[in-house]
Amino acid sequence: MSSVSDKIADVLEPFRVYILGCGSALPTLRHNASSQIVEVREKVFMLDCAEGTQMQLRRSRVRFNKLSHVFITHLHGDHCFGLIGMISTFGLLGRTATLHVHAPEALGPILKGQIAFFTHDLGFEVEFHPVDTTQPSVAYEDRSVIVETIPLQHRMPTCGYLIREKAGLPHIRREMIDFYQIPISQINNIKNGSDWTTPEGEVIPYSRLVKPADPVRSYAYCSDTRYIPTLYRQLTGVSTLYHESTYGEDHLQNAEKYCHSTARQAAMVARDAGVGKLLLGHYSSRYEDENVLLKEAQEVFKNTFLTNEMDVIDV
């Protein structure tokens, strides 16, 4: 049951990203392949699930049973080989809650066959949701969060994901509540737009009783993709953008050949979209020091950061 302080307090709920892996296809001792956890509005989502993800999940101390939805970008192994292993482990741990998997349609029958072959009496449902990688669409939505697909260009059907909070209600001005002795029972009505009438008949406008709602926060995950000059249009104003930066400009030809991006190109997307900050990742194993990638990106977009395993980033 909510207390009086809970109803009045202005508390910004956590919106965090846990980096479980930020390397590319070739496994190394420095980086795990792609996977992230996003914690938003008391929900836990996973973005990609590479080999070894469940071990990284343990290290992150995010509780397994809180994970409800997994979003897969594409069917290259460094983004999905860990999924069946994690599902099997969830069964061994006695999970009962449905796990929702969102991914390109081709994964559906593969995952169904793996579950049938490798698990027995799993104990929970795995519900598969095919996503359209060719156009922006809603992959998930509830009363407080929406997840949309971001069409990308790779060597197979691929999409990124945009996780966005829905606009919340305004905050009550505590001093006004105290001054007018407004009952706690009326706070939600005021937040939803009602004026307050005092016992003497004076109408206090709603606008005097509240402060603006918290700004809507959003997180975009774009991996893997070639540089798309128009991508910024779907990312305009995003709080935090993760954009693959497999190569530096020294290997631009490889980026073009394998449909990846350079760090500089990632920064161009961030700059054109006017995002709050840019996170780099999906590094090629050829780079022993990713600071060369960071430097190239910061020349275009200053508020750029490298990601590393076990980083926890506030969106």
Give a short synopsis of this structure.
The protein is built from twelve helices and 18 strands.
Tell me what the structure shows.
This protein is of the alpha/beta class and 315 residues long. Helix content is 27%, strand content 27%. It has twelve helices and 18 strands. A seven-stranded mixed β-sheet has the order 6-5-4-3-2-1-18. A seven-stranded mixed β-sheet has the order 7-8-9-14-15-16-17, with helices on one face. It has a two-stranded antiparallel sheet with strand order 10-13. It is globular and about 75 Å long. The chain starts with a helix and ends with a strand.
Write the layout of secondary structure elements.
Blueprint: H1 4-8, E1 15-21, E2 35-40, E3 43-49, H2 53-60, E4 67-71, H3 77-80, H4 83-92, E5 99-104, H5 107-118, E6 126-131, E7 138-141, E8 145-151, E9 159-165, E10 171-172, H6 174-180, H7 187-191, E11 196-197, E12 203-204, H8 206-209, E13 210-211, E14 218-222, H9 232-235, E15 240-244, H10 252-258, H11 263-273, E16 277-281, H12 291-298, E17 304-306, E18 312-314
Parallel strand pairs: 3-4, 4-5, 5-6, 14-15, 15-16, 16-17
Antiparallel strand pairs: 1-2, 1-18, 2-3, 7-8, 8-9, 9-14, 10-13, 11-12
Helix pairs in contact: 11-12
